[in-house]
Amino acid sequence: MTHYRITLLPGDGIGPEIMEVTVAVMKRVGEHLDLQFSFKEALMGGAAIDATGNPLPDETLEICKDSDAVLLAAIGGYKWDSLPNNLRPERGLLDLRAGLGLFANLRPAKILPQLIDASTLKREVVEGVDIMVVRELTGGIYFGQPKGIFTTETGEKRGVNTMVYSESEIDRIGKVAFEAARKRGSRLCSVDKANVLEVSQLWRDRITQLSADYPDVELSHLYVDNAAMQLVRSPKQFDTIVTGNLFGDILSDAAAMLTGSIGMLPSASLGASGPGVFEPVHGSAPDIAGQDKANPLAQVLSAAMMMRYGLNEPEAGDRLEQAVMTVLDANYRTGDIMSPGMKLVGCKEMGAALMQALG
Ligand code: NAD
Could you tell me if 56 and 112 lie in one domain? Predict the structure, then answer.
C-alpha cells in the first residue's frame, strides 16, 4: 500500500466546509485504490492570524515542507480586511509560494457539458473546450529589478518595473509545461511578445530548444495579443498554454471565464521538487460561510489535480473527476451553479452525492 502525507490548510470562510467534503472523498478513493493518506491540518490565513498573529506561522510552513502535497481551501474575510498588507491573510499565500519555491501555476479551464450554459460565450464556441494554462509564478515583471517609483533630476516621478527572465527560469517552467502537455493532448502553445520584447525573444528561443527533448509534443508560438483574441474567438484550438507571469495572470483568468463558473475551477502550484499546493481558484466566500451553501466541487477537482500532478496517481484523479461528472449528470447543483429544473443541494448533500457516486 502506498502511503502519502497530505497537509490540509482549510483556512477561512467556506474553507473548512469544502475541505471536510474533500477529505471524505479522498479517503474513499484511497480505500478503493489501496492508497493510504495521512492528513495533518495546519493553520493559515485569518484563522492563523487570530491564533498566532501571523498568516503563515513557521510551524505551518514546516508541516507543509514535510509532506507529499498541500491541499489548501481558501483564506481571507471581512474581519481581516482592515489589517496592514503584511499582516493580511493573502500575505500567507505569497509566503507559502515563496517558502515552497512554487514557480509554476497550472490553471485548467474545462467546459463541463452539464454547465455549458453558465458560459457567456456561445455554446458552439465553448463546447469541448479543455485548456491548461501553465503560468510562470515567481519571475518576470512582478519581481524583476529595478522596480519602484523614483524621482528624476527634474523632479518628475517615474514608475519602473522590469521584465526579466533568465535561461534557467524559462527552462524550468518550460519543462513543467511540456510534461503537463504530455499528460493531456500533447500540444503546447507558448505565448510571448517576441516581436517587441527581447526578454520574450529569449523565452521563445529557449522553449524552441527545449522542444527537442519532447518530440511527442507539438509546439506552437503566439504573440500575447493574438492569444487573447484566439482565446475568445476559437478557444478549442488550445490544449496546453505556457507563458510568463504577467501574460499568464491575464490569460488564465480569461481562459477560466470561458467556463463561467468560479465554484468549479481548481489550480495547482508546483516547484522543482518538494510538495505542490493545490487549491480552488475561488476565495473564501465569506457571504455564504457557515450556511452549508458552498460548492465543494472546485476543491474536489483540486484534490484530483493533487493526485495527478502532485502524487502521480492519475487513476485516483480520474475517479474524483468522474465522481464530479456523475453528480452533475444526476442534476445536483449548489446555488452558484443552479439552473431551472436542477436539484438544489447544500455542501453536505453534494458531499453525500459524491460519496454515493464513488461507491
Ligand atoms: P470569492 O471567490 O470568495 O467570492 C466571490 C463570489 O463567488 C461570492 O458571491 C461567493 O459567495 C461566490 N463563491 C465563491 N466560491 C464559491 C463556492 N465554492 N461555492 C459557492 N459560491 C462561491 O471572492 P471575493 O468575495 O472577492 O473574496 C472573498 C475573500 O476571499 C477575500 O478576503 C479575498 O481576499 C479572499 N480570496 C482568497 C483567495 C484564495 O484563498 N486563494 C482567492 C480570492 C479571494
Answer: no
Percentage helix, strand, coil, to 5, in the chain? Answer: 50, 20, 30
Residue 267, in any domain of the structure: no
Same domain as 213, residue 118: yes
Q: What is the pLDDT of residues 26-47, one digit of tens each?
A: 999 999 999 999 999 999 999 9
Residue 297 alpha carbon, nearest atom of ligand 1 = 18
Q: What is the mean pLDDT of residues 188-207?
A: 98
Residue 229 shares a structural domain with residue 116? yes
**pLDDT tens across 68-110, in order?**
999 999 999 999 999 987 789 988 998 999 899 999 999 999 9
**Residue 292 labelled as part of a binding site:** yes
Confidence of residue 135 (pLDDT cuts 50, 70, 90): very high
Q: How confident is the model at residue 320, as a pLDDT?
A: 98
- The confidence score (pLDDT) of residue 1 equals 84
Measured in Å, residue 215 CA sits from the centre of ligand 1 at 41
Residues annotated as part of the active site:
142, 193, 225, 249, 253
Which residues contact residue 356 at a Cβ distance below 8 angstroms, ignoring those fewer than 6 apart?
Answer: none
Is residue 11 classed exposed, middle or buried when 0-12, 13-18 and 19+ CB atoms within 10 A define those classes?
buried
Beta strand residue intervals within 152-264, DSSP E: 157-160, 187-192, 218-223, 240-243
Are 90 and 66 found together in one domain?
yes
CA pair distance 316, 59, nearest whole angstrom:
29
